[in-house]
Every structure is written in structure tokens, then in C-alpha cells.
């Protein structure tokens, strides 16, 4: 099975390298842009959640995609938002 996959990939690679650059570039972008976007978002989320758990500050910004426990807006006339 791995040999069949390797031979198939070699065929695809050979076909792609023989195309003109004008066709190679859009095809690679169509494949690589979504993969890179997914990887960047995954890395960002992992780093954000890891640093949120490790940080010693209780008032640190919460991870992306989660709501803070206290979502009250600070009062515009009082420093610190006093309630």
C-alpha cells in the first residue's frame, strides 16, 4: 500500500512540475493557502490557550473564542470601572 501511494504521488509531482509556471502557481496556491491558514489558526489557538493557562495574572486576556467571566463594561467616568 505505501508503495502504491508513493508511486501515485510521484506521478502527481511529475505532472505538476511539467506544467507551465502560469498553471503551477494557481494550483499550488489553491492547495497550500487553505492548509497554511488552518495550520496558522491551529498554532494560534494552541499558543493562546497554553499561555492563558500558564500566565500568573488573573486579569489576563481570555483565549480567543471564549467569553470572560466578567463581561461588564467599565464606567466611563470612574477609573477602574467601579460598581
From TrEMBL:
Keyword Membrane: yes
Transmembrane segments: 21-43
Protein name: Uncharacterized protein
Record flagged with keyword Transmembrane: yes
Entry keyword set: Membrane, Transmembrane, Transmembrane helix
Skewed-composition ranges (Basic and acidic residues): 52-61
Lineage of origin: Bacteria, Bacillati, Actinomycetota, Actinomycetes, Pseudonocardiales
Disordered, as annotated region: 52-83
Amino acid at each position: 500500500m505505501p508503495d502504491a501511494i508513493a508511486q501515485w504521488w510521484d506521478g502527481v509531482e511529475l505532472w505538476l512540475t511539467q506544467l507551465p509556471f502560469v498553471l503551477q502557481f494557481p494550483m499550488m496556491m489553491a492547495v497550500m493557502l487553505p492548509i497554511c491558514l488552518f495550520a496558522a489558526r491551529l498554532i494560534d489557538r494552541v499558543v493562546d490557550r497554553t499561555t492563558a493557562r500558564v500566565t500568573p495574572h488573573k486579569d489576563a486576556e481570555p483565549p480567543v473564542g471564549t467569553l470572560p467571566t466578567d463581561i461588564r463594561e467599565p464606567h466611563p467616568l470612574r477609573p477602574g470601572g467601579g460598581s
